[in-house]
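FAQ: What does a ligand-bound record look like?

Like this one, built around zinc ion:
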Amino acid sequence: MNKKIKWVIGFIIGIILLLVIYLVVTQKEKYFDRIELPQTTMVVNKTQLNYLDSIVYVGISELHLTPTVIVLRELTDKNQPTGDIEDLKLMAYIQGKNHQYILNIRKMSRDNSLTVISHELIHLLQREEERFIAVDGKIIFQDIEYTIENMPDYKQRPWEVEAYSKQSKLRKKIEKVLYQSRK
Ligand SMILES: [Zn+2]
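The answer part, i.e. the structure of the complex:
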């Protein structure tokens, strides 16, 4: 083979290797710090994503909630509910009241789950404070009753407006705890 062609091929392989190394290094997952888990909250994680329970533990403690049991379940196309409880394009939804909840959540990256869980924990807070009550197919939020007849569009629902407006602040608080060694 021509010496020049060998050099060109070698150069191209070198560039590809560097690119692969760069991608591997930059895509590396940002693992959480080891943290002391609060004794008052019990998280039962039935999903395959072990980082979800750290986020929930820290989120619950940042919201200063009373002792809470929360089960994490994987949400799939097969077990997704029908009807009008869509949340975040059905990435997740929460069920329960009185310190006992089920958080149904799709498989997603660590980064996305920080946002989605923060959103869902705001809904959990609304339920704990009894500002959000789901009963007999209707929703009562801050003493106003919502049924199929007067249900606003998803993004206009007052409990969603609140969750979207508060989720990033909670996410930042959770990140501050889980990534405390980075700053
Ligand atoms: Zn929501």
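Follow-up question: can I read anything off the structure? Yes, for example: The pocket of zinc ion is lined by residues 87-88, 119, 123, 160, 163 (CB under 6 Å).
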